[in-house]
Write a structure and sequence with these properties.
Number of strands: 13
Shape: globular
Order of helices and strands: HEEEEEEEEEEEEEH
Number of helices: 2
Strand content: 35-45%
Largest sheet: 7 strands, antiparallel
Number of domains: 2
């Protein structure tokens, strides 16, 4: 009876450890955004590479939404290519992650457009600099976007009148697995299997 119980305990511990290794399910990133005038959104694992297209839109009057899956353990860069077709330009959005397996560059699961966490380039997916702030959601000439967080800032390059094509980037980092718990679990397996050998 003890032998059977020990086997059950060992199997349970092994299953628990396997679960720890697989605890991270796909994270879903969701967003509400608009870009005056046109944009394309990409997910990339390399900040110098455009990445996989998630969505695009050419009507800045409407706020659009998207969602996409992130693979556990993989770091990403969210890339937004913006195109202006006249007068001032801007990018406004809010973004969220549904698990703690990934975090944005601010260390949180929520991110707004701002000049701290978003870099911009006028030459492609390279030569990034800090983006410039053109006011919070609601500012003239864009008005209020009720489906985007009120704290989001309209951002662009340093010249949002003349720089008509820009490239935004922000990092999404995978959170490491709970290694302390895994080591503890492995130690328990070692002790359990040692007792199991002695009783056998």
């Amino acid at each position: 009876m003890k032998l059977k119980s020990m086997k059950t305990i060992v199997a349970g511990v092994i299953f628990s450890i396997a679960s720890l290794f697989n605890i991270a399910n796909a994270t879903v990133i969701t967003a509400n955004l608009t870009v005056d005038n046109e944009y394309s959104v990409y997910l990339s694992t390399d900040d110098s590479t455009q990445g996989t297209l998630i969505m695009s839109d050419n009507n800045w009057y409407s706020t659009e939404s998207f969602s996409a899956n992130l693979t556990a353990g993989t770091d990403y860069f969210l890339h937004v290519a913006g195109v202006d077709v006249g007068w001032v330009a801007g990018f406004l959005g809010d973004f969220s992650l549904d698990t703690s397996d990934h975090v944005f560059s601010n260390g949180l699961s929520q991110l707004l457009t701002n000049t701290i966490d978003w870099n911009v380039s006028t030459t492609g997916w390279t030569n990034y600099v800090t983006s410039s702030d053109y006011g919070v959601n609601g500012v003239y000439p864009w008005g209020n976007r009720t489906t985007i967080d009120a704290g989001a800032e309209w951002i662009w390059s340093a010249d949002n009148d003349s720089d008509n094509t820009v490239y935004f980037s922000t990092a999404i980092t995978a959170v490491p697995a709970p290694s302390t718990m895994i080591i503890f679990g492995l130690a328990l397996v070692g002790l359990a299997s040692r007792r199991f050998k002695k009783q056998a």
